[in-house]
Amino acid sequence: MSSLDHFRLMAPYNAWMNTKIYDTAERLTAEELARDRNAFFGSILGTLNHLVASDLIWFGRLAGHPPFAGRIDLAGLPQPTSVRFAVAEELSGLRPIRERIDRLVIGFVDGLSDADIAEALDYRRTDGTRQHKVLASVLSHIFNHQTHHRGQVTTLLTQAGVDVGVTDLLALIPDVD
Questions:
Q1: Where, in this chain's numbering, is a divalent metal cation bound (predicted)?
Q2: Which among 49, 118, 121, 144 would be 20 to 30 A from 34, CA to CA?
């Protein structure tokens, strides 16, 4: 499987899993979602906010990179400057932003070429440090980051008494003949 094909598998998987996470989280009260559970970002809602803030930061960087300018529409979305930025105080406010980002990610990845993913991306970290990374590596990080923190959220949801169900990427991989 090429890197591009891998990203084209990961983008819909990412959206599918985010939908499952949000559907499951909606079974909890606002208080349960905001309860500090001693996780990296405190609560279930805090962790979900972190994922949205991080994606907005990353896609803001990508939108500012000349080859990708115009391919990424972030109009009307928050512009966090920190991965701890609270994008929304409640799940109901966060979900539509998450869904828009997921559609944006799928559309962006679907429009990429092998040459695009070999592009070097110049950006600054949130602490101002200049970085220079290949887009394929950045996309790998973005998808891995999502998986990492969604794993934390599924644990927190399970501890809160709700089950996300099947989370395996394998569920979206078709059988071969």
A1: 50, 145, 149
A2: 144
**Residue 80 belongs to domain with CATH number:** 1.20.120.450
Binding-site entries = 50, 145, 149
**pLDDT at position 69:** 86
> Tens digit of pLDDT for each residue in 11-47?
999 999 999 999 999 999 999 999 999 999 999 999 9
8 A C-beta contact, residue 21 and residue 164: yes
Q: How many domains does the chain have?
A: 1
Asked if the structure places residue 177 within a domain, the reply is: no
Give the residue numbers spanning the domain of 103. Answer: 3-163
CA distances from residue 72 to 19, 41, 64, 67, 106 in whole angstroms, order as listed: 21, 27, 9, 11, 11
